[in-house]
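Reviewers of the previous submission asked for a worked example of the structure-prediction workflow described in the proposal, so we include one complete record here. The input consisted solely of the amino acid sequence. No template or homolog information was supplied to the procedure at any stage.
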Amino acid sequence: MAFRPSRPPRLHRPHRFDVYVAVSGLLGGLFLWGIGLGVRPADDPIVLLDGRWAILLPLAVTAGCEVLRRAAPRTALLVGTAAVVVDLVTQGSLFTLLMYTDLMYAAVLYGTPGSARRIPRITGLLTVAGALVPFAVWRVPEALLIGVTIGLVSFAPASTGLIVRNHRDVAEAAQLRAEQTALLAEMDRTQAVVAERARMARELHDMVANHLSAIAIHSTAALSLDDAKTSREALAVIRENSVEGLAEMRRLIGILRDGDGEPTAIPTLDGLPALVAGARGNGLDVTLDNPLPDTTHGQVPAPVELAAYRIVQESLTNALKHASAGRVTVSLDRPNGSLTVQVTSPYGDRDGPSAPGSGAGLVGMRERAALLHGTFEAGPEDSADGKIWAVRATLPVGDADPA
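From that input alone, the workflow returned the following structure tokens.
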């Protein structure tokens, strides 16, 4: 869409520079009037208002119009035109003509867009007519000087004002585009920072929450049961999860420090059996049904594999904290153009979660599915084995965005 410059603002008070121009023009005209220098001799046939005092009226009016050259350019030009017409039937003042050319220039530069288009056209036609009509009537070359004079007084300053206005509008448009570009760049930067913070928050939650939940559950068991064997087994699980959680934290901190440290391997679907085995080692009765074949890795985009892995990981963490006693089932399917992940766990009344939760897990899973233009749903359902909590995510395989 083409940029259309807005109408220049109208000032409530005359500009200080305009006042200086008006005073300078008036003083200059008074100086020429004082020494008796006019544009035409007193015996010129065109002089209808004889007398030196007649020069002062158009001079004063034109100087007053100069004060309004920026605040009311069209009004100043109309009144100034009338003053110049009166000046033509006197001996005339050079400063009246000079100030009138400035009024013509200012009317195009500071006036409305319509005035800026019309004034050069009108003055151009007057210039041509002022040259051709007298020449056709009098048939003398000197008659062409009338058109030249009209052109110098009206068309030349109007054309100059139009050129300056066009350059000004182009500069304003370029400045506006630069400001818009800077604003869009800042918005993109802010969105990128927010998106990166959200991504790191999801990764931090998904990588560490599973280990911390297992530590919290088994430490509670070790404290509540007065059995040496059970306490030893719980401490072993606690140590294993604390070591793994610490390693995950170190790798994540390495990423945050501009890549310092070991690179973090991106989890894939091939890691689901080990993930399920780890959850089983934490005391969760979980099975992996309908695992995808090994050839699936490489055919599914890496962002989809990562999202599926993290959704299963967070679902198992939630089941460890909230599920009732019973079988937890993880299943994957790959219908046409999508990857479906489902995790079900027993759902029933219990005293409370084995470890505290914040609800960020469900939010993170929903965000992961939404970023890949997939669907996510989680909630209680009725099944043949009783009431269950089901987590389902459908992730498009063909439209995955690597970002």
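The CA atoms of residues 218 and 234 lie 5 Å apart. We consider this example representative of the routine output the project will generate in years two and three.
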